[in-house]
Amino acid sequence: MSTPPFLTLPACARSVRLRTARGEFAALHAVPQGRDATATALLVPGFTGSKEDFIALLEPLAEDGLEVVAIDQRGQYETGGPDDVAAYALEELSLDLLAVTAELRERTAARPLHLLAHSFAGYVARDAVLRATGTPLPWSSLTLLSTGPAAVGHGETERAKLLLAALPAMTLEEIWQAMQEMDEAGGAKVRLEQDIAEFLHRRWLANVPAALAAMAQRLISEPDRVDALAKVSLPKLVVSGEQDYAWPVELQAQMALRLSAEHVVVPGAGHSPNAERPAGTAVSLSAFWSNVLA
């Protein structure tokens, strides 16, 4: 999961509820101060994540003239959802994304709309792009952030299988405590500021268990659909950290080649450049989106 570096919203941002044809989605909404936005960026978080994963990007992107909307997907943190695994099938999540896109399109008229998807959300965005109808597409570009062409690597597959086995037998609180103990025993426990640690705990408990199960299963079974995505005429960018525990950076580079997309590696970042190196990530995103506008 991504760990946001702070939780206080910048002056340019606020928490909102985004109403769509498929229900309401919790969102963070940032706008440029003192000028009109030149484009809108829609940011979608990955597995066990939330809109707060992008909180450190809000101000630098708004300063570059972008309106920014970061959402919780169905089943995540403050959006919620039904206790039914079928409700979190990839098709349902991509239809949600299309509904959010349609609502933003209605509000922003002809302004460019850029779609960014982190980790698991890369599957969702890819499916939504392949499912979208009409010409032109509702987005001006697609950015795949720390995601891969298919299922996650072996280590994360094993973790997802452990979670799938635990969900029917344990509460989310019990699973959280077990994960903390595993991290402690493996030397992966990171000491966090109290407010961040409490937020991560609170966010985990707010997940819908059925959503966790559906997403975890998808993470270990997603097929490679890169060739289909490559056929879609849409500017694309692949962004990685220098290291990634979910998909090897080399694999993400190969995916970028297959997509005829630029591959940007953010120095000093891991699986979540958006939270770990937000300044450098924002520069790369703004540069790409500005070129799309040109």
From TrEMBL:
Signal peptide: none annotated. Residues 42-282 form the AB hydrolase-1 domain. Keywords: Hydrolase. GO terms for biological process: glycerolipid catabolic process. Pfam families: Abhydrolase_6. One of its GO terms (molecular function) is triacylglycerol lipase activity. SUPFAM superfamilies: alpha/beta-Hydrolases (SSF53474). This is Alpha/beta hydrolase. It comes from Streptacidiphilus pinicola.
